[in-house]
Amino acid sequence: MKTHIEKNTVQETLVIPLYGRRLCTEQFPNLFRDEKAVELIDRIDYDFSALEKKSKSFAHRFGALEVAMRENDLMIEAKAYLKDHPRAALVNLGCGLDQTAENCDNGTCRIYNLDLPDVIAVRNGLLPESGRIRNIAADLNDPSWFDEIDAQNGVCFLAAGVFYYFKTEDVKKLLNEMAKRFPGGRLIFDTANRRAVKIMLKTWVKEAGITSIADYFSVESIEKEILPWMKNARVSARGYMLGYNDLKDPSVPRLFRLMAKLGDGYMKMHIVRMDLGE
User: Fold this and answer.
1) Phi and psi dihedrals of 167, rounded to 5?
2) 143: helix, coil or strand?
3) pLDDT for the residue 208
């Protein structure tokens, strides 16, 4: 039996990145493969016709590549952490139907997937808990979820495309609370400047009746805007699109590589690695 997802619901937002991962698997298989995304699309009862039509456009193909590169980047950083902390907790914040943490599984780490209750309800139907994997319904801004994480052997948090939907002050508060509770842990997340965030949130902002995104999380300068928040954290950043991969695969159009340079440069799209102070 297929899992039904209604139009115009929070659950519908799970479908777009999932479809993007399938599209990228088909379009750029040498760079990215997510066979689980391909499988899940076939298990969801949803009218994909609009996405299928859009998937032929230049913009949506590049958008799919963006999603895939971000996931690859986070996996590289998470796997590096697990080499030094093989029994650590790997925590996917705002997980949706994403399997980045599972794709990093080394056989000994603990995996936690966190999202809002209605999202976790869908995830439980499609990607149920098993063994070392737990799905947790939680509001990220309510730190009570900290108690669910066994971090005694280390912890690495992943947040892909999550913080843009939070106000800057809320992100600052969350990161500082995490640093206090999980010293020695690592947080990996993506940032972009206001130009990029305005594009990313265009539809959501309109539907929410918000006329300005000025209060929402965006970063022009890691050094000036993130470093001052965290007294003991070590923070580094690399380009979101080209910081981990040169995208010189024959399947990638030359114009896509130019757009990737603009993304990392003009849009300030970065992957941030934050090692929380001891």
Assistant:
1) -70, 150
2) helix
3) 47
What is the DSSP secondary structure assignment for residue 148, as one 8-state letter?
A: G
Global pTM reads: 0.93
At 176, which amino acid appears?
N
DSSP-based three-state secondary structure for 45: strand
Q: Three-state DSSP class for 89?
A: strand
Taking a C-beta distance cutoff of 8 angstroms, is the pair 153, 89 a contact? yes
Task: Choose among 49, 39, 1: nearest CA to 18.
Answer: 39
∠ CA(105), CA(113), CA(126), 5° rounding?
90
Answer yes or no: are the C-beta atoms of 89 and 101 closer than 8 Å.
no
> Are 19 and 26 a contacting pair, CB within 8 Å?
no
CA-closest candidate to residue 137, choices 123, 125, 157: 123
Residue 235's DSSP bridge partners are: 274
What tokens appear for 119 in the block? Answer: 């999202």
Name, in order, each residue with C-beta under 8 angstroms of 96's C-beta and a sequence gap of 6 or more.
13, 14, 17, 18, 115, 119, 123
Mean pLDDT by 10 residues, the chain (278 residues): 77 83 90 90 88 86 90 96 98 95 96 95 92 96 96 97 92 95 96 87 54 80 91 91 94 94 95 89
Distances (CA, A) of 270 to 94, 124, 125, 222: 18, 31, 33, 9
Tell me the two tokens of residue 21: 């991962």
**Two tokens at 52?**
């299928």
Domains, the chain, ranges and CATH?
3-275 (3.40.50.150)
